[in-house]
Amino acid sequence: MQFIQSTGENTVVTLKDRLDYSTAAALMEELKTLVGQDIKRIDFHCGDLAYISSTGIRCMVFVKQKIDKNVDLDVCLHHVRQEVKDVFTLSGLEDYFEFVD
Amino acid sequence: MSTARNVYRADLASVPEMMRAVEDSLTGKPEKFAYSMKLICEEILVNIVSYAYPEMETGELTINWYDDTENQRLTIVFEDSGAPFNPLLKESPDLSVPMAERKIGGLGIMMVRELSDAVRYAYENGKNILTVEKNYGD
What CATH topology corresponds to B2-135? Predict the structure, then answer.
C-alpha cells in the first residue's frame, strides 16, 4: 500500500482502514523518506481510517519529532473519525495536530 | 455466562488470526466498547508475542473469554508459559512533557489501563495470567 500520495512543500498522505501492528511498519518506512526534506505542511487524509492503535500513534509521533525537527511544520489530519480521534486524545496528542473536518 | 477458550502459537504471525477471533467475539457489542476491546487485545497480544518467549522458541498463548451477559461484563484472560513478565509494571509515558521530549514507550499498556474497568496480572503455576474486565452496559 502506498501511503504518501505526493511529496514536496505540501505533502499528502492517505491513511485507510487500519493503522495498527500490521500496517504501521510500512507507513513508518515511507515516513522515514521525508526526514530532512523541505516540507512545510503534511496533510493526512483519514476519512477511510477506521482504526488506529498505539503502533499507529507512534508513526504520528515520529512525524512531529523527526520530520518536524527543524522547521515549523503544519500537520493537518482531515476527516478523522471520532473513535480514531479519541485514541489521539487518550495518547495526549490532540493538541499537536490540526484536525480539519 | 458464555465462555470460550482458544489456544494459539505465541508468535507475531498468529496475531492476525487472534485479532480476527477477537473481532468475531465482539460482534454485536456496542461500537465504542468493541473499539476499546480491540485496542486492549491488540496491545496485550503484540506485547505477549514480543516478550514472552525468546527468539526461536515457540510457545502457546491462550485466550479465555467470559461474557457475563446478565451483568454485561466481558472478562478476557490471557495466559502464556513464557518468562515471568508483568506488563503492568511498565511506566506510562509522561503526557505533560513537550512533544520534542515525549517518550512513547509504555503507551500501549497505558491505553490498556485507561480503557479497562479492571486489569490485573498474576504469575501462577508457571504461567503469566493477565485479566482484563470491561462493562458494555449503559
Answer: Heat Shock Protein 90 (3.30.565)
ipTM at complex level: 0.88
**Whether pLDDT at A22 is above 80:** yes
Q: How many domains does chain A have?
A: 1
Q: What is the mean pLDDT of residues B71-95?
A: 92
A56: containing domain = 4-100
Which residues contact residue A77 at a Cβ distance below 8 angstroms, ignoring those fewer than 6 apart?
A44, A46, A97, A98, A99, A100
A58: domain CATH number is 3.30.750.24
* Partner residue facing A21 (CB), from B42, B93, B102: B42
Q: Do A61 and B114 touch (CB under 8 A)?
A: no
3-state secondary structure of A12: strand
**Residue A82 to residues A25, A54, B35, Cα–Cα distance (Å):** 24, 16, 11
Chain A residue with minimal CA distance to B109?
A54
Q: Which residue of A has its CA nearest to B94?
A: A92
Q: Which residues in chain B have their CB less than 8 angstroms from residue A64's CB?
A: 99
Say yes or no: A99 contacts chain B, CB-CB below 8 A. Answer: no
Query: Which stretch of DSSP H or E encloses residue A60?
Result: helix A54-62
